[in-house]
Amino acid sequence: MAEMIETRLNARQRKFALLVAEGMSQYAAFEKVYGRKEATYASALTRKPAVAAEIARLQAEAAAACSLKHQELVGFLVSVIMTPVGHLGPDDLLVQEWTEVETKGSKRRTLKGINKLGAAKLLSCLLGWMKPDHSSSQSEIKIVLKKMWEDEDGAGQGNRT
Fold this sequence. Notes:
Layout: H1 11-21, H2 26-34, H3 39-47, H4 49-65, H5 70-82, E1 95-103, E2 106-113, H6 116-126, H7 134-153
Antiparallel strand pairs: 1-2
Organism: Luteolibacter rhizosphaerae
Protein name: Phage terminase small subunit
């Protein structure tokens, strides 16, 4: 007979699921809810079917409620990257802070815009351009370690104790 999956969550499990769904790491959420640092327990709790289902449900609700769609976000990030700073004005959506100071007949403007490099990184992630390729670095490490082993033991005779 198939095991029944426990679907009821206690208050701590619900709070943990909410924090993880909101973007907090499972380890930080576990520490906040349970008051102790237990990476193993945090990981195990995340894998519990009822907790995982609650996290997925909360994330789906948040995605459905989000008024900014994927293509709109991509368009916004492209405009952040491509808009020259000199084209920005005080009421521009890309400007976070704008100050004007007049001194002795001259005007000094200071603006704080959105981080272009941060926007480029986020755009790269959204479009799948930043996928880590560990294969080349792993093989390079293995080759170096093998070479060191051979040099140390006299052409790899393996006299290690």
